């Protein structure tokens, strides 16, 4: 019988298997000899196919052989974020201490959907989540946070909470269903704010009705669906439109976000049956508060509103003007959500925390510690200023959270997530916080941001390259001087195919740019100099 990982005998069974894994990780990294495998998708697919053979053999090969064969194949074929030339995405190299803690989480295998499956892990999650929430809301005595799989889930939960708060407003008169448009391409176009740059289609009109009071009443549950989901410029194509609009009920929440917002915001609105978000153009890379106010002013008075701001955009790391947007939200009685998946951890740093000033005025905040927090995937959070704000997520399943058990003092964990089975992702976060402390994390953040500034200096000093703008956090946009979009795309693909560098791409109003997202605090000036020379050598063709 194959041994188990848990119990008193588990560590003894794991030790030789872990030795095999660690040996193979080292061998695979040496064999790859770069940030990613050379040859492109076909070469990698062929290598994996050869290594796997029959995916479900009639007879097994044994644990040692299986681990060595497949871990080697995945390691040789990996894009390694620990390599200083692997800088395409918000994809960090995880800290060794966090990976070690994640091993313990896998071996113990708690599931955080009921206390009797995760007694200590659930308490650790509660305490650590509250501590991280206090980082965002230092003046809020009851701030809390939910652990998520990342920014996408956190943003979806933020819109869900806003929708449920809006659902408590006074009902409006019955409305007739909105016809599905015949032109599907029009149905999937972004709804730009009227009167702002990029306005190509008006926001959906909402049925007229009496204007309710702005403060939301107690939320009541009940999803409702609207037609015509549109596409944000970066969003994947959604599925079929929602088939109907409910005949009556409160006016639907209207989301206003920037063109710079993460695609998950528009997708979350679609998944939740909300109208298409009003997308405000961001020609300068960040939201203009006046344009947001204009967009809100175009919406029907009775429509509850949510502004989504971004603290650390995916393309450039730009941070929207949070204090000014909070003022706009207050003036219009709108909720404010800040997607700080990237920029939120700047709060650990005394040097950089001011960049996200005003974040504490948001109703909800997304954090993602598998970006600028050096955690293995997944390590996201949705933060709120008061635990009461999470009440709409309350749910009852008698086999997990019977009412009499809850009354007897056993915690009800179902309201801590929209998911049921959940692994204790908080363990690696808690271990990292204890091991490094706030000062240790701040040092990593400061070093990483300084490296981005140094890379920008090198690019500015290189005649064959041009810099888009100075980095706000740790993302640097640049390209060969005068290169048109096809040339930039070709240079990036050549570096990928050769296995020499993993650079991202960012489409801006002034063309296509290479993107270096620095998340490796160990990166050295010599690594950055080599990267600049590498790109400079691929500037033609």
Automatic annotation (TrEMBL):
GO molecular function, one term: aromatic-L-amino-acid decarboxylase activity
Compositionally biased spans, kind Pro residues: 207-226
N6-(pyridoxal phosphate)lysine modifications at: 371
GO cellular component terms, A-Z: cytoplasm
Pfam assignment, any one: Pyridoxal_deC
InterPro entries: PyrdxlP-dep_de-COase, PyrdxlP-dep_Trfase, PyrdxlP-dep_Trfase_major, PyrdxlP-dep_Trfase_small
Keyword flag Repeat: no
Region ranges (Disordered): 169-254
Protein name: Aspartate aminotransferase family protein
Native organism taxonomy: Bacteria, Bacillati, Actinomycetota, Actinomycetes, Kitasatosporales
């Amino acid at each position: 019988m194959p041994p188990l990982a848990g119990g008193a005998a588990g560590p003894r069974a794991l030790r030789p298997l872990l030795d095999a894994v660690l040996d193979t990780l080292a061998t695979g990294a040496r064999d790859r000899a770069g940030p990613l495998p050379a040859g492109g998708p076909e070469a990698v697919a062929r290598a994996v196919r050869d290594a796997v053979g029959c995916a479900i053999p009639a007879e097994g090969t044994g644990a040692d052989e299986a681990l060595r064969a497949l871990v080697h194949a995945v390691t040789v074929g990996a894009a390694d974020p620990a390599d200083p030339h692997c800088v395409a995405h918000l994809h960090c190299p995880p800290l060794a201490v966090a990976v070690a803690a994640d091993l313990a989480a896998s071996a113990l295998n708690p599931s955080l959907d009921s206390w009797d499956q995760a007694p200590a892990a659930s308490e650790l999650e509660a305490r650590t989540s509250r501590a991280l929430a206090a980082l965002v809301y230092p003046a809020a005595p009851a701030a809390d946070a939910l652990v998520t799989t990342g920014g996408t889930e956190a943003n979806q939960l933020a819109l869900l909470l806003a929708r449920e708060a809006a659902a408590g407003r006074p009902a409006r008169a019955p409305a007739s269903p909105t016809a599905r448009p015949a032109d599907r391409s029009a149905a999937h176009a972004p709804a730009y704010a009227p009167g702002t740059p990029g306005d190509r289609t008006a926001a959906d009109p909402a049925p007229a009705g009496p204007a309710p009071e702005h403060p939301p009443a107690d939320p009541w549950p009940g999803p409702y669906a609207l037609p015509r989901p549109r596409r944000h410029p970066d969003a994947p194509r959604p599925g079929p439109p929602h088939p109907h609009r409910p005949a009556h009920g409160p006016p639907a929440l209207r989301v206003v976000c920037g063109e710079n917002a993460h695609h998950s915001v528009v997708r979350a609105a679609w998944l939740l049956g909300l109208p298409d978000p009003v997308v405000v153009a961001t020609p300068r890379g960040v939201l203009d508060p006046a344009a947001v106010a204009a967009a809100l002013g175009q919406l029907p008075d009775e429509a509850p509103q949510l502004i989504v701001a971004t603290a650390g955009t995916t393309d450039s790391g730009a941070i929207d003007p949070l204090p000014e947007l909070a003022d706009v939200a207050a003036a219009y009685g709108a909720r404010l959500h800040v997607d700080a998946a990237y920029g939120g951890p700047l709060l650990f740093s005394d040097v950089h925390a001011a960049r996200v000033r005003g974040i504490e005025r948001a109703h909800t905040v997304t954090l993602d510690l598998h970006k600028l927090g050096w955690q293995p995937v997944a390590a996201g959070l949705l933060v709120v200023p008061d635990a009461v704000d999470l009440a709409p997520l309350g749910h009852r399943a008698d086999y997990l959270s019977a009412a009499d058990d809850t009354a007897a003092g056993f915690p009800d964990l179902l309201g801590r997530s929209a998911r049921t089975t959940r692994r204790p992702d908080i363990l690696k976060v808690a271990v990292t916080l204890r091991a490094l402390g706030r000062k240790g994390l701040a040092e990593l953040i400061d070093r990483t941001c300084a490296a981005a500034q140094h890379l920008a200096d090198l690019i500015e000093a290189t005649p064959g390259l041009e810099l888009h703008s100075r980095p706000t956090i740790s993302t640097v946009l640049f390209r060969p001087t005068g290169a048109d979009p096809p040339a930039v795309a070709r240079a990036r693909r050549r570096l990928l195919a050769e296995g020499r560098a993993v650079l991202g791409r960012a489409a801006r109003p002034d063309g296509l740019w290479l993107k270096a997202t620095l998340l490796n605090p160990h990166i050295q000036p010599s690594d950055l100099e080599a990267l600049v020379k590498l790109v400079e050598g691929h500037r033609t063709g």
